[in-house]
Write a structure and sequence with these properties.
Layout lengths: L13 H28 L13 E5 L1 E2 L2 E2 L4 E6 L2 E7 L5 E5 L4 E7 L9 E2 L6 E6 L4 E3 L4 E2 L8 H33 L6 H18 L4 H29 L4 H23 L15 E3 L2 E3 L1 H23 L1 H11 L1 H6 L4 H26 L6 H4 L1 H11 L4 H17 L9 H15 L13
Parallel strand pairs: 1-10
Antiparallel strand pairs: 1-6, 2-3, 4-5, 4-7, 7-9, 8-11, 12-13
Helix pairs in contact: 1-6, 2-6, 2-7, 2-9, 2-11, 2-12, 3-4, 3-5, 3-9, 4-9, 6-7, 6-9, 7-9, 11-12, 11-13, 12-13
């Protein structure tokens, strides 16, 4: 691997510094370039609820036209406990007195002439409201009823959802794979990095009052700094002391527990939504119905992952990273500053996890268990694709994401993650090195 390096990469020399800056700029540039586009494409949510107030909100959209003046009510145990009227943007927000299972009703007589719900019974939506959380309520409007979606259309819809979910998983899995490849560490705290990114973006978005897009950029900076400090302050000293991988794994479990319960202490156990883009009327692209934010998430994820992949192949730092992952001792004798490379990998891997956490919280909600709930899927994506290979992590994550969604065609949604892990076990029985991993001799 050392032969592919045109020149030795030194931590203290200007070339390594310039390369690190180039790679960081390459990763951030596409996100900044699409930020303005996202501001245009993503619709605001209109009326806002007070912080720490639970409620329901949504947007009424009929073939691209906002529906104003519609009456929406919230019922609890058959009693109306809240009411709202959609504004000029079609948005509505209802505060509810307590957490619980509500029925959100749309008054069909308040809709404009010729506009109704597309399906029978579509004027009522069951919504579960958690303490301090704002839950979405979506009504599908149109002219008359629409036939029930067929199996082929549903499969296509689930495939698109799985593709989005797989790309989001890949954001975290690639960072996890890079860290494993360069250090050998199985980092059980990586899921908490996703959670921390979602919480940091929520802080800048809701508490500080920034729009979600600049709030996400600030969260990326916080995540990158945290990745640098955690490697310098914890993992670096452990490496220099010669701490074994098993002991380091136990330390990562302890770090995971510490971070998780710090999140619980500061934000509580309730789920929360971002101030923007939490609810959107979906776009109908043929048989596929998808909110605009999900299109942006897929586009940004694909672009960032592509840039990271190209950087690993083309840049000197990327080649040095692959050299360290292949043989750290040989890389060091070739003039590569192994510690500097590992430190940069921690920075980039944590930043990718932060971005993945924000995207995941947009599709779900901000919760102190957000990253922990998908940690096994992150490991499944990394293991399925091939341990220590970034491209394998991408492929494995896409397989896991698509399978978890499409499996609901035949099994209950509650078992979709279990099904993905079963498939992982079966594939590894046949190909233990994973999809893109290399077979190794044992003994």
């Amino acid at each position: 691997m050392g032969k592919i390096l045109p020149r030795p990469v030194h931590a203290s020399g200007p070339p390594a510094t310039r390369t690190a800056r180039t790679l960081a700029t390459a990763v951030a540039a596409p996100f900044l370039a699409l930020a303005a586009l996202a501001l245009v494409l993503l619709a605001g949510v209109g009326p806002a609820l007070a912080q720490d107030t639970q409620g329901v909100r949504g947007t009424l959209n009929n073939a691209g036209e906002r529906v104003e003046g519609a009456v929406i009510t919230a019922e609890l145990d058959g009693k109306v406990v809240g009411e709202a009227v959609s504004d000029a943007t079609g948005a509505f927000a209802i505060s509810v007195p307590e957490p619980g299972d509500y029925i959100i009703k749309l008054d069909l007589e308040s809709l404009p002439e010729g506009v109704t719900v597309r399906e029978e019974g579509g004027d009522e939506r069951p919504v579960t409201v958690r303490p301090g959380a704002v839950s979405p309520a979506l009504f599908v409007l149109g002219e008359g009823n629409r036939e029930t979606t067929g199996d082929a259309e549903r499969a296509l819809q689930l495939f698109v959802r799985g593709l989005q979910f797989g790309l989001v998983i890949a954001m975290g899995a690639i960072g996890l794979s890079l860290i494993f490849g360069t250090t050998g560490l199985t980092n059980f705290a990586h899921g908490e990095f996703l959670t921390g990114g979602a919480i940091a973006a929520y802080f800048f978005n809701v508490t500080v009052g920034m729009n979600l897009i600049p709030a996400t950029l600030c969260a990326l900076v916080v995540g990158a700094v945290f990745g640098y400090l955690i490697d310098k302050g914890l993992w670096g000293p452990l490496r220099r002391r010669g701490t074994g991988l098993i002991a380091a794994l136990v330390v990562s479990i302890g770090l995971s527990l510490v971070l998780r319960y710090l999140y619980l202490y500061f934000i509580g156990g309730s789920s929360r939504s971002y101030a923007q883009y939490a609810t959107q009327q979906p776009l109908n692209l043929g048989p596929i119905s998808i909110p605009p934010r999900d299109l942006i998430i897929m586009g940004l994820s694909a672009l960032v992952l592509t840039v990271v992949g190209v950087a690993l192949i083309k840049t000197r730092l990327g080649k040095a990273t692959r050299a360290v992952a292949d043989n750290p001792s040989l890389a060091a004798t070739s003039g590569i500053d192994v510690e500097r490379v590992i430190n940069v990998v921690w920075v980039i891997g944590t930043a990718l996890a932060v971005l993945g956490g924000v995207f995941l919280a947009l599709s779900q909600q901000v919760s102190y268990l957000l990253g922990f709930q998908i940690l096994l899927l992150l490991f499944a994506g990394v293991t399925l694709g091939g341990l220590g290979t970034a491209f394998g992590a991408l492929v494995g994550s896409l397989v896991i994401g698509i399978f978890t969604q499409m499996s609901t065609l035949v099994i209950p949604a509650e078992l979709q993650n279990v099904g993905a892990l079963v498939v992982l076990i079966l594939i590894l029985v046949v190909r233990p090195q994973g999809i893109l991993g290399r077979a190794e001799r044992v003994g």
